[in-house]
Amino acid sequence: MNASPLKLVVKMYDLVIQATYREDQGKVKAILSELIQGLNFDYEPAGQLFELYRYCQDLARKQRFDEIREILEPLRETWEEVANQKQPSPSVVQQ
Asked: How distant, in Å, are the alpha carbons of 31, 38, 75, 81 from that of 86?
């Protein structure tokens, strides 16, 4: 409950990646929808993340879970690196 918004994003990535391993299409799509709703379009990367999340939702519909992981795992690592930095930086996540 007291995690930073960035750490919550990392947790959401963990959950969606786990759901791809279980091939839980509904869960994958639902978590991606939550990630989309959390985007802050005041920052440029939000539009690109929106497109990636929508694309991953389409891949989930086609049950192409390996491809979703190929896209989201590197992004998850990047979010984790940012979340672990001490300096606050602009985020595409609404606070």
From this structure: 27, 22, 19, 10
**Structure tokens that stand for 2 in this block:** 């007291």
Question: What do you get for the CA distance between the two ends of the chain, in Å?
Answer: 13
- Global pTM exceeds 0.90: no
Is the Cβ–Cβ distance between 42 and 93 less than 8 Å?
A: no
Q: DSSP assignment, residue 89?
A: -
Decide: helix, strand or coil at residue 13: helix
Chain-centroid distance of CA 44 in Å reads 16
Query: Does residue 57 contact residue 63 with C-beta atoms inside 8 Å?
Result: no
Q: Residue 89 pLDDT > 60, yes or no?
A: no
